[in-house]
Design a protein that fits this description.
By secondary structure, the chain is an alpha/beta fold. The chain has 21 helices and 21 strands.
Length: 568
């Protein structure tokens, strides 16, 4: 349909993809654009930025709206935890999810009131709905219920009613079903003509071997739940598109990371709060005995400083270090696609074009894969980050935003090798004991580096295998309701593998073998070979005269851990 003179509602318009969609729509002169976001300041910021970019359209062209689109209007500005913590609100929330959706209930929802008020002919939904629902973590809620059941059996104090109700509020399928029901009926009432959803595969296009998790097992059940919800959402939209008198329904489903919004130097924040720096000098190291607490309020000395570094802002997916971004975007890993390319597909589909990426129209072969444009821009992004690192005298290694903690652990271990030995060949020729001693010396003397590692939840295991440099919280073992874990040699080895910077000699042996595998891979390429057959050749590794943590960890995930994506 023609966009000119139409009212468009961009749900999630403040985000990376939503902003790109708004700008692409402006090329087609719509009547007005409703820009929504979860928070008021986000929606108003997005509108302010757009008004500055398009001053000729007038002050009422871009209209901000904010709130949670998954709840009723009266709860749209209330944090989820506040709803669940209040008995009366929790009961209402449960009924909204599990009760019958009659007209009275429909008209109380935030989505209905948004669409009824502005009656947009076009709705573009850029919210990652599967993430919003799946990352509520039904598994943790289930564990809480089981814990209370066990306590009840033991006749201890418990709050089984509240934990059970919280579990009911976390059920994925009722939430996604109810959300799509509300979207559909609200668009029918508003006479919306076309609905385009920006969906997700849940894994950035990767499979069960995806290396990236958040301390969960591999593959992560929470991550697989996200993919399950995304699949359920797609099928519900497929049914919506087959419903007479409903809006034309399309879904664009990127199967790569989406980047980027900006590259900068500044404070690193998690959940909106700066990462505080803590230190744990070797003489204050935690002595590992038979139990290992994940959280220790008295552990870690506050430095009174915030973590600052060079970062790349990927919008809703958070901010990454150069090492994290390089690892995730290298060929064979998740790679990435730009928001502008997504926006171009959205607008072309609205206009009636066939991009081949509408998954509702073709449930197979319709995903938006990593792109040539992104590949061309990758070197530019990494170069800019390196320039900012040099300017600010810092190294952007890992923030523990991307996950798993093993990624941060490997990035910092390879960075320490770079600090101590400069190049891959030198590391391979140095005795493991000497590697361990050198890395330990660096950690012992460099307070700033030590603090950067432990402050993101990655502890440092000293060569004795018993002393742990750590902050108040550690990512591995993950906190799942239990604060203490039984310690034995097997568990220490497992945790060190999964998310501890490991300075033990035996881990240095692993690194030597790892680098030798890379050398063997490269040396197996015939000297006269100049075709496109091989990518990771001597030039790729800069003749082994450097250590690039992101590339090395990308190789580990691809080759050593069999985490390569099957389709390009």
């Amino acid at each position: 349909m023609d966009i000119k003179g139409r009212t468009v509602c961009v749900i999630g318009g403040w985000g990376l993809v939503g902003s790109a969609v708004c700008r692409k729509l402006m090329e087609r002169t719509p009547k007005r654009i409703i820009v929504t976001s979860l928070k008021r300041e986000e929606a108003e910021e997005a509108v302010s930025d757009l008004q500055k970019e398009y001053p000729h359209v007038g002050k009422d062209f871009f209209i901000p709206w904010w709130g949670n689109i998954f709840v009723r209007q009266e709860f749209k500005d209330t944090p989820r935890e506040e709803i669940l913590a209040d008995e009366k609100k929790r009961e209402v929330f449960m009924h909204d999810i599990l009760g019958e959706l009659n007209d009275a209930a429909l008209k109380k929802t935030a989505v209905y009131q948004l669409l009824w008020k502005y009656k947009p002919e076009i709705v573009v939904d850029c919210v990652n709905s599967a993430t919003v629902i799946a990352y509520q973590d039904i598994f943790q809620s289930s564990r809480d219920v089981l814990k209370q059941v066990r306590a009840m059996k033991a006749k201890k104090d418990n709050n089984l009613i509240e934990t059970t109700e919280r579990l009911l509020c976390t059920l994925y399928v009722p939430q996604i079903v109810r959300h799509v029901q509300i979207m559909y009926r609200s668009m029918i009432a508003a006479k919306t003509k076309i609905y385009v959803k920006i969906g997700t595969s849940g894994t950035g296009g990767m499979g069960f071997n995806i290396p990236y998790t958040h301390s969960e097992e591999k593959p992560s059940r929470v991550l697989l739940s996200k993919s399950s919800v995304a699949g359920a959402h797609t099928m519900l939209l497929f049914l919506m598109g087959r419903t007479p008198d409903g809006p034309i329904t399309k879904e664009i489903k990127p199967t790569a990371a989406i980047a980027w919004k900006k590259i900068a130097y500044g404070e690193i924040k998690k959940r909106g709060k700066p990462v505080e720096l803590f230190d744990c000098p070797p003489e204050k190291g935690f002595k590992i005995t038979n139990m290992l607490p994940v959280k220790m309020a008295e552990c870690g000395k506050p430095l009174g400083k915030k973590l600052k570094s060079v970062y790349i802002d990927t919008g809703e997916n958070g901010i990454f270090s150069r090492g994290e971004f390089e690892a995730i975007s290298m060929p064979g890993q998740m790679e990435y696609v730009t928001p502008e390319e997504i926006a171009e597909s959205v607008v072309y589909e609205i206009l009636g074009g066939n991009t081949g990426h509408d998954i509702i129209n073709a449930l197979d072969h319709a995903t938006l894969e990593p792109t040539f444009r992104a590949g061309v821009l990758l070197e530019s992004a990494l170069k800019k980050m390196k320039q900012l690192e040099k300017k600010h005298g810092t190294e952007s290694v890992a923030f523990e935003m991307l996950g798993p903690p093993r990624l941060s652990k490997l990035l910092y271990e390879s960075y320490l090798l770079k600090r101590g030995f400069k190049d891959m060949l030198t590391v391979s020729k140095t005795a493991a004991k000497s590697l361990s001693k050198k890395l330990t010396d660096i950690i012992t003397k460099d307070t700033e580096l030590r603090a950067r590692i432990i402050s993101i939840g990655i502890p440092i295991l000293m060569p004795d295998g018993k002393t742990l440099l750590r902050g108040k919280e550690i990512k591995i073992p993950p906190y799942r309701g239990e604060n203490e874990f039984l310690v034995n040699p097997k568990s220490i080895n497992l945790w060190a593998h999964d998310g501890w910077v490991d300075l033990r000699v035996k881990n240095m042996e692993v690194w030597k073998k790892r680098l030798n595998c890379i050398f063997d891979e490269v040396n197996s390429i015939p000297e006269a070979e100049t075709s496109s057959r091989f990518m990771r050749n001597k030039e790729y590794w800069k003749n082994f005269k450097d250590i690039e943590p992101g590339k090395i960890v990308g190789w580990i995930f691809t080759v050593e851990e069999l985490g390569e994506r099957m389709k390009a």
